[in-house]
Structure formats: structure tokens, C-alpha cells
Amino acid sequence: MQQKASDDPSSSPQQLAQAAILAALASRWQEAVKLNEKIINVEKDNIEALNRLARAHYFLGEDAKSQKCYKKVLELDPYNIIAIKNLEKLLKSTRGANGSPRKAGNGHTPIASGNLPTGGTLNLSQIFLYEPGKTKLVNLLNLAPPSTLASLSCSEQVYLNPKNHAVTILNSEGVYLGAFPDDLAHRLISLLAQGYKYEAYVKCTTTKMLAIFVKEVERSSKLAAQPSFQTKYSLFDEEN
Given CA atoms 198, 204, 205, 209 in this order, what sign does their dihedral have? Predict the structure, then answer.
């Protein structure tokens, strides 16, 4: 009988991380907690594992533990967009009348559900609404492994992760998906530093490509006339 990575004490953090991702994709949250905790026991400052652990605790209804993990991430990386957005949503989430944590179950709304309107019906036309200068379709480079890309779905919200000289894209668990081309990355790093804010969603994906729809959601008051993207091409030009 083949031994699972999660059962093998000699498993590397990389093997445990892959097993944790697969457990989360299958909604095996207790298993995901154990796997990510094993990683953190070896690498206590592993930000990706802490983000995954926070998400697993959330789906188990363990809000306090989830908040603790996200706060730990922000101690290590104050600008970690995954922790910032998910902690904000977690703190605003609905509680029982007595303030007690919600119970885990099928009705537990995913943290990364900002792409769903109040009625719960996915509105693709709203997500992918083209606005000149404010939206852009980007084919990512240096892609994640095919198994990671295969887990994505159209309209899934993803997150910009700006670094010193690059902008990468992460999923809601903090898993790397790909990177923006250098010229666009440099421009967005500059605009983000000026106060611009963006949302991003999966537009199209295969095991060999990933196209992300990026939209400007907030513009710096100092640069009110400065669009985020070139406007001479339409969304259809970009797609073609």
C-alpha cells in the first residue's frame, strides 16, 4: 500500500504543502489543518502555510484561530494582500446573536467570495465589464505547475502580490499562480505605491496558460487623470 505524504514523517515541507492544497481542494479541512501545522512546526514563519491554515480554520468555523493565523502573517509581512483581505472579511462576517462563532457546514460562505453578488448568483458580465483605462486582460508568465492551474475556475478571484521588482498572482490560499510581464509589473508597482487598488479574476485557464482580468477599483486622488492601462486597444484586441 502506497504511503501518503501526510503519513510520512520524512515528508518535506514542499510535499506537505502539495498535500495540504489537495486536501483543501477536496474540502478535507481537518486534514488541511494537520498538514499545514506540520509545515509550521518545521518552518514557523512559512507565510503560505499560515494563510492556508487560517483558511482551513475558517471553514471549520474556528474564527478565532483563523484570525490568529492571519495576524501572524501580517506580523511577518504587513503588506500580505491575502491576509489583509481575508482578515478584513472575517472581522466583518456575520456572527450569532450572542457573538459566538458560526458553525461549520455547507452554508459556510468561502472567504474569497467577493465575486459573488448578494443573491449568490455569479454575474460574469459584471465581473468582466470592460472599462477603458481601468481594466486589462493579462497573460501571466512563469506559470505554476499544471496541477495548480487545473484547480482554477473562471471568475475565481485572485490577488496581486507586489514585490520589489515584480508582481505575482496568488490564489485565496496564497499559492503562487504566475507573474505579470515586467513592463506592466513596474507600472503597477508605481501606481500601487501612489494608492491605486486593484481586483483580479481568472478569465481563462488551461494547464499551459492563465489569463487574468485586472480591474482598477480605486485611484489616487493625486493622479485622478492617470489611467492604469493603455486605452488604444479594446478588451477584444487583447483577447485576440
Answer: negative
CA atoms within 13 A on the CB side of 69: 27
At residue 148's C-alpha, the angle toward residues 31 and 13, to 5°, is 50
Identical fold at 5-92 and 124-239? no
| pLDDT tens per residue across span 157-202 | 899 999 888 999 998 878 899 999 999 999 999 999 888 899 999 9
Give the cell for residue 7: 503519513
Residue 42 near residue 13 (C-beta atoms within 8 A): yes
In this prediction, residue 237 has a pLDDT band, given cuts at 50, 70 and 90, of: very low
Give the torsion through C-alpha atoms of 14, 16, 18, 24, to 10 deg.
-150
For helices 29-42 and 13-25, give the axis angle rounded to 10 degrees: 160
In DSSP notation, 93-129 reads S---TT-PPPPPSTT---SS-TTS-TTS---HHHHT-
The backbone torsions φ and ψ at residue 5, rounded to the nearest 5 degrees and listed phi first, read: -60, -35
Return the C-alpha cell found at 191.
Answer: 501606481
Domain made up of 124-239: CATH architecture: 2-Layer Sandwich (3.30)
Decide: 43 and 49 in contact? Cβ < 8 Å: yes
Show me where the domains of the chain are located. Answer: 5-92, 124-239
The pTM is what?
Answer: 0.52
CATH class for domain 5-92?
mainly alpha
